[in-house]
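yo, Putative stomatin/prohibitin-family membrane protease subunit YbbK is done. seq:
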Amino acid sequence: MNDPGSFFGVAIGGIVLLLFVIFILVAIFRAIRIVKQGYTGIVERFGKFHKVLEPGLNFLVPFIDREAYSIDMREQVRSFPPQPVITEDNLVVSIDTVVYFQVTEPRSATYEIANYLAAVEQLTTTTLRNVVGGMNLEAALTSRDTINSRLRGELDQATGKWGLRVSRVELKAIDPPVSIQDSMEKQMRAERDRRAAILTAEGSKQSQILEAEGLRQSEILRAEGEAKAQVLRAKGDAEAQILLAKGESQAIERVFEAIHAGDADNKLLAYQYLQTLPKLAEGDANKLWIIPSELTDALQQIGTGFFEGKAEVPYKRTRVERSDREEKSILDENFESDSVNDVEVPSIADTLRSSGIDPKDAGAEQTISSDTSLADETPGAGYEDAVQTVREEMPGRDPQAASEQVTGDAIPSGEEIDPQLPDSAAYPDTDQGGFNQQNPDQNR
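structure:
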């Protein structure tokens, strides 16, 4: 047991066993490979591509296979620094880009390109200059979608052999020169002001249109209401005029019927007409009278109504001869005044005096002058005696006719007229109204 040779042999055997155990442990460690999700591994055997390790647990041949590369299979985003680009109109703009790409073939990405990240960056810069260089500044500023799609297409085609797929390319910023930026800001400010003015004008236009429409509707409604009111007023006025006309018509008919039913004498109507004449001058507004040319004929007919009983009463009349010019002058002076002026009608007293009756006993007189209107007869105490005397002297005639004024041709004094004869017999040259037809000049 104390032999040194045996002790030495035991020690060597222990060392060998320990080395073997260590070797086994190292071989096991190198043979097992765990790949994370989203990654792949490139295995080389003796320096040559052998296989691609998938995510999970993988086994390698120890000391023969080795994992040379680990490739990230997820989509990657790379933001590149701003690149100066010259546009078609020789303006330099600074463009900042972002590229989204993904490794689809780990072997190509490992062995076809040395550094695919640097390659993508350089390719993006050159492609961007080619695309934007064919556009002017305005098109470059307003055509981002076009630039993005063209960049993505060209980059995807160029990186396909590298085992890469470019999914998106975005332009983060396009910065023109400072001078251009100032001009653009002014232009944008002017454009904003123009749009604001247009919007303000449109709003004012719409407001005015609505206001005018409302005013038009209100005017239409007001006009319709006024038209209806006028129609109603016109109907009311028409009905009032109709009722008034009917009332006046009925009043005239009743007066006419009363006149005919009462068998009114023409002398009474003529007397009432003369009573009405002075009323024409009443009122401050009556400054002008319009006298028809037929007035003399009307007065003559009125006188005829007064003088129908002239044949029964013997009288004398003094005729005053005047020329046509003098008569016209007298008529003009009378008609221009406010009432009947300077015309004196013989009173009942004169008529009774011409019949041989004392007017003081009768106590009645009538005077028409420019100062007074036609006064009513005022019978005195002896009026009934005078009437009785007329009845006795002229039987069969109305005594009232004897008291009226008589005008006509002068009758020679002392000539007696039969009271029973009609007017045509008493006056051969006149009609029944006392008008001389053969010698009209004597009717004045």
